[in-house]
Every structure is written in structure tokens, then in C-alpha cells.
Write a structure and sequence with these properties.
The chain contains six helices and twelve strands. The longest helix is centred in the middle third of the chain and has 17 residues, at 168-184. It folds into two domains: 28-132, 2-Layer Sandwich (Phosphorylase Kinase, domain 1); 154-275, Alpha-Beta Plaits (2-Layer Sandwich). By secondary structure, the chain is of the alpha+beta class. Strands 3-7-6-5-4 form a five-stranded antiparallel β-sheet, with no helix packed on it. The protein has a five-stranded antiparallel β-sheet with strand order 9-10-8-11-12, with helices on both faces. The protein has a two-stranded antiparallel ribbon with strand order 1-2.
Length: 284
């Protein structure tokens, strides 16, 4: 067994992602000795360029999950799902991702956050893209586009089902403490809870960015609650994305996103519905 670097949950040796928090699992055997890129087809996202690898190192192989700007599973610009970090250097970070509209793998390069607001660095970056787009060769990764996502609010949706009324006191204790923590957390733009049928509970929250959400998730009462919830819940799922508005989505949209783009979290006593990722719409 291996252990998740982000939340401490145990995982099978062959697992690539943590079933609890979705983070990439980093093991010595997953560290690559080279990057293997082929000629590509893809598009950029974020404030960086994009190149399309058909193969490459495993997600998270070049650094700890906690140090990543974008966690595996994150949806950017309502189009790109982050798979993992390919590498980082002086001019930024490169992530492997899936283009959800075209159904193709892409690589996304992000300018370092410390330079993102500096005019000279931005112009240098745009110049790099303009020159790279003119290059077409079987052994060179094509650059297709450039855009921006930094500064866009980060939305997170969580659905939990408590497996027995006996566990409700414990669940409410952790839920109240976590909600209080979230309201006081740096970068929180709003949070709302919904009590659904059959001991099911939904949470939606908005953050200034993913880093703010992860800082909350991996600290204080919420970090303490995570291993407890794995035991007292028998269904758990989550989804997150960036959007232009800081307004929280309605519950219908939250459900649609969760079904279409979400992922399961690890629970120790999963129901058949959890294993099949069957999520009924919330009762509003």
C-alpha cells in the first residue's frame, strides 16, 4: 500500500490517483527519466501555451501534489481537465490535460504566477507563442493557442451520503466546524449547504482560486474531518471548475456538472450506487 501525500489516505500500489481527494499518487517508480513527446494536435488554455503529447510521464511525477497549482481532475476554462504535472522550469509549469470538447490529450503551459502580472514577461510569453506557432515539424510539438484563466473564481461541489443515522451527530459536528472554517478562510467567496433525501448532503463553495480552496481543504477542521468521513459515509463525489463569475451555481447546475465531470471520493463502505457513480438530482 502507498499513502496519499495530500490527505494521508492509503491507496493500492497500482493506483494513480487518491480516491479520497483526487490527488496524483507519487511513488519512486512513477518518476520518469525523460519526456516522450510526439507530434501533436491540441490547443492552449490558461495564460500559457499548449502542446499536445500523445504520451508522457505519469501525473504528479515532477513534484508533490501540494505544490501543484492545478490538482488532477480540475476543469479549466470549462474545457480542459488536468491529468497531472509534466514538469516545471524557469518559464513556468506544463500540465498534461484532456480537451473535453475535442476528446484529445493536450499539454498546457502556465506562466509562473509571480510573472503573470508583469508586462515585460507577458509580452515575452506572447512573443514565444507567436514564433512557436510558425514552426511545423514532425519532431516539434505544435503550439496552438494562448489564453487566460488566472484570476477566475474556482467553484467546488461536494456530495456526501451518511451511511446510517447513528453517524449523523459526528457528521454534523465535522460539517459545522468545516463550514465555519471555510467562511473565515482566505479566498472564500461563498459557501452553501443543502440537506437532501436519504441522509445526503451537498456543499457548494466559491474561491478566488484553486490554491485558496486547497489551503482550506488540507488544514484545520476540514483536514481532520476527511478520514472520518471516509468511514461514516458510503457515497462521496466531487467536482470543481473555474468560471468568470463568483456566483455559486444553482443546485441543478451543480448536479449536472457532478454527473458530467465529477469523480468519486474514497469511502470504506461504498454502496452499489457509489461504485456505479449513480447520482440522483438533489431534492430542492
Amino acid at each position: 500500500m502507498t499513502r496519499c501525500h495530500a490527505c494521508g489516505t492509503e491507496a493500492a500500489e497500482a493506483a494513480r490517483f487518491c480516491a479520497s481527494c483526487g490527488s496524483a499518487l507519487i511513488t519512486p517508480s512513477s518518476t520518469p527519466t525523460h519526456l516522450d513527446f510526439e507530434a501533436p494536435s491540441g490547443r492552449a488554455s490558461a495564460s500559457p501555451t499548449a502542446i499536445t503529447p500523445s504520451s508522457g510521464p505519469p501525473p504528479g511525477a515532477h513534484g508533490s501534489v501540494a505544490a501543484m497549482r492545478h490538482a488532477p481532475g480540475t476543469i479549466l476554462a470549462e474545457r480542459y481537465r488536468i491529468i497531472g504535472l509534466l514538469g516545471r522550469g524557469g518559464m513556468g509549469e506544463v500540465y498534461r490535460a484532456d480537451d473535453l470538447k475535442l476528446g484529445q490529450p493536450v499539454a498546457l503551459k502556465f506562466l509562473p504566477q509571480r510573472y503573470a502580472s508583469e508586462k515585460d514577461w507577458l509580452e515575452r510569453f506572447y512573443s514565444e507563442v507567436r514564433i512557436a506557432r510558425q514552426v511545423s515539424h514532425p519532431n516539434v510539438c505544435r503550439v496552438y493557442d494562448i489564453g487566460e484563466v488566472e484570476g477566475m473564481p474556482f467553484i467546488s461541489i461536494t456530495r456526501l451520503r451518511v451511511r446510517s443515522p447513528w453517524y449523523l451527530p459526528s457528521f454534523f459536528w465535522h460539517a459545522i466546524r468545516s463550514k465555519t472554517q471555510a467562511k473565515k478562510a482566505a479566498g472564500n467567496l461563498g459557501i452553501a449547504l443543502l440537506t437532501d433525501a436519504k441522509l445526503t448532503f451537498w456543499t457548494k463553495s466559491a474561491w478566488t482560486d484553486q490554491a485558496a480552496m486547497r489551503a482550506f481543504m488540507l488544514s484545520g477542521p476540514h483536514r481532520t474531518a476527511m478520514p472520518v468521513l471516509m468511514d461514516i459515509c458510503d457515497e462521496a463525489s466531487l467536482v470543481d471548475w473555474t468560471q468568470e463569475s463568483a456566483a455559486l451555481p444553482d443546485w441543478k447546475e451543480a448536479h449536472r456538472r457532478l454527473v458530467a465531470e465529477g469523480r468519486r471520493s474514497k469511502v470504506r463502505h461504498p454502496t452499489p450506487a457509489h461504485d456505479a457513480f449513480e447520482i440522483p438530482p438533489p431534492r430542492v
